[in-house]
Each structure stands twice: as C-alpha cells, then as structure tokens.
Amino acid sequence: MQLTWHRCAFAELTAAELYAIVVLREQVFIVEQTCPYLDADGLDPASEHLWAAREDGALAAYLRIVPAGAKFDEVALGRIITAPWARGTGLGKDLVRRGLAAVGNVPVRIGAQAHLERFYGEFGFARASDNYDEDGIPHLEMLRMPR
Known about the structure:
Blueprint: E1 4-9, H1 15-32, E2 48-53, E3 59-66, E4 75-82, H2 91-103, E5 108-113, H3 117-121, E6 126-127, E7 132-134, E8 137-144
Parallel strand pairs: 4-5
Antiparallel strand pairs: 1-2, 2-3, 3-4, 5-8, 6-8, 7-8
C-alpha cells in the first residue's frame, strides 16, 4: 500500500484535505461506532493534523496534535483513527509513533477508548484515570511521561 504522510496546521489544510479528514472521522467515530456526537469540538483550529493518504486522496490514518492547555495540561494526541480498509496492517502503530515523534520528548495525555489500553501501553502510556463514559463508549485517560 503506497501512502504519503502529511502534517500541517489547520490553516494550511486544503479544502479537499479537510473534507477527507471529516469523512474518515465521521465514517468511523459516528457511523461505524453508532455514536452521534459533535465532532467539531473547537480544537481543530489550534491543532496540527497528521495523516497518511493514498494517491487518490483517501485517508488511511489520521490524528491531531492538540497543544498543551487546549484540552489537557499536557500535549494531547486525539482523534486517532485508521480507516477500516487499512486496519491490521500496522499502520495504527506507525501513526502513533509518528505522532509521538512530532511532539517530541514531552508529557502526552490521551483520552483513549478503554479497549485500547494495552495498545497505547505499548508506547509507554499508563492509565491516569478510572474508566468514564464518553458518548456511550468506555474511555480512560492515559499519560506518557518524557523518556
């Protein structure tokens, strides 16, 4: 699978790139997970956006880097997603590695779906909260301290 990686600030996104991001986030977080919620939470304009796309522009994987103080005291990785057709390829791990490399050696907090605790633990994230309900899905906060 030939993919090209991209990273930019919100203001640098083209209309086509933003549309592709919205399509993937809605496809998985809203439709596939049957979870109606407001995806436009106000954090995108302050965030950096990292994604891998095919030549036709279809997104294979995406995350946003939320600056410290915008959501949590720490930098946050959020909206971490792999397209259904790209799952099981290791792309999700590559995406998280690239996100962590992009933020550098700083504390990083995520709000993770609880069933992914072990996955994020492989990157040095540790549970930082009890489970909580977010839009009908069990979540937990996880924190990764600088190494």
